[in-house]
Amino acid sequence: MDQLSADIVQTIADVVDYSDIPSFRLTCRAFAAIGLPRQFETIPVMLFRNSLENLRRISQHPVCRNYVLTIEFGPCVVSKPEGREDWIDAVKRRRMVPSSKHLAYSEVELEQAYQSHRWYYDDHEEMKNTGYDFEAFKSAISCFPNLKRLHIARSITRSLGLSKFKNPPPNWGVAFCSMAKVMGRFGCNQFWDLDWGDPARDITSILAACKLAPKALSSFDCEVFDEEIIGCDESHDMTGSVPPSRLTEFVEDPTKDIGFSLVCATFESLTSMKLTLLRSRSAQCESWQEHLGAALCHAQSLEALGIQLPSSHRSNYALLFTTILGSSTWPHLTHLSLSSFRFHEHDLPTFLLRHPSLHTLTLTHAYATDFDWSAHLQSSSLAPHLRQLRSLTLAGNWLAESWTELDEIFLRDYFHYESRYDEPWGLGRPVDLSAVFGKWARDITGARNACELLSRYFASVPGEVPFPLYTGREILEEVARQMEEETWDGSRNAGMIIAAERVVGEQYQNRKLHSNYSEDGEEVGEEFRTCGMNMYYYSSW
Fold first, then answer.
1. Residue 14 falls within a domain, yes or no?
2. Range 19-26, long-range pairs (CB < 8 A, 24+ positions)
3. In this structure, are 279 and 238 located in the same domain?
4. Do 49 and 198 belong to one domain?
5. Residue 539: which of 510, 514, 507 has the closest Cα?
6. Does position 27 have pLDDT exceeding 70, yes or no?
7. What is the pLDDT, as a whole number, of residue 150?
8. Is position 375 within any domain?
9. Where does a domain end: 313, 334, 369?
10. For the segment 413-454, what is each residue's pLDDT rounded down to a tens digit?
11. Measured at the alpha carbon of residue 389, what is the angle toward residues 383 and 392, in degrees to the nearest 5?
């Protein structure tokens, strides 16, 4: 404690129970060892009165508030308690000791915990209805002179909520501490509604508070960017400013929508933005994407931009590149990361031509609307731009209609052979560029997957490294070759898009790149490894 000022010791005393001397001393030592600035660089906060009060206390401290750079915010909802008997039965099932079958808490303590849950639920509803959350955000954020970044984190409610149930902070009050101990550490799943209710309203509240702060945000990372945040109301001001009348309405009644205007105004100052969009449920999906594209036009200071749909491997859910990014130009853009987008042939060449400052590009789950990816990536309109990048990553599932719409009738007419198959043939699914090769292929190529082969191709001098993917026409020729040699199994194998003879040599061109083989050349299984997981299955072919 001698290494810390009296102000810091007092701040720790506000958080840690001073009567618990060992914990108090341990916390002081941790602060001294790690250093005060790092302790307060990032402040996690939930839309919960106790958490908001903690944020307010930090903002009022003359020393601590100067170190706050990032707020990590988790929209949350206190779940509506079940009926008294059902609620207590649920707690009893979790808190039962298997050996003795006796509960550790009395009926009185259970009743008090249930009433506390009901009180917190009612308080949470009142807090949102009265706009207390907005006032708390506005009051606190206006006191952070160095705040730069807002992170709307999907995991905050679960991680922070779980930690508060596991180790209830004394300054959250006796009622919460008693309730948390009775409900147990996994009681957070009963206390918090992890599905949220209306994240758009909660996020709008903190965005409005940030807009009223003396210093504008420079970084915004939102993991739950819902379509309702931006709104689709055509009456909204499309200039990008928040009209004073609309902001006044929101301050007086935070249930008022200031959607598009607020988002545009927030984007204006940003140099870094990452948006994870929730899948649209609206029939006006394209209209909503147009609003997002219009809002992005106002972010003229952007240096890094990332937009993605989480875990979207289906092309019908993909975002439209032309609608969202087709009309924007950002003079200072250096980093772009996109996931689950649908492209037209002219989109990427035109965009890269408008952004000569771009040096890092990541495309994941990309879908071609009217062209063949293999041919386009090698084209004179696109390849030179891609070679100029410092870093290029092409990963995930890629789909082009010219890869998949190869049916038996077309093959028969084109190659003049008699049909031996009743069903149309096609690749059947998007090509997973991230799927890991079998060990033998990794040893020969020195690459783990097609992503690395493509990166190697674009990092090389033209002509030095063969392009690793077949075009649609080359797939037809390869199918014909395999049929003539009677090695084609008609399996609709998406791995066929990779030109095996170019990357492992002609002697291995009939092997499946993602399979493993025994020493005598027999196939023993196909390996898939995506997102850090391994999966093996044995082929019946």
1. yes
2. 25/1
3. yes
4. yes
5. 514
6. no
7. 95
8. no
9. 369
10. 555 545 554 444 555 567 889 999 999 999 999 999 999 999
11. 85
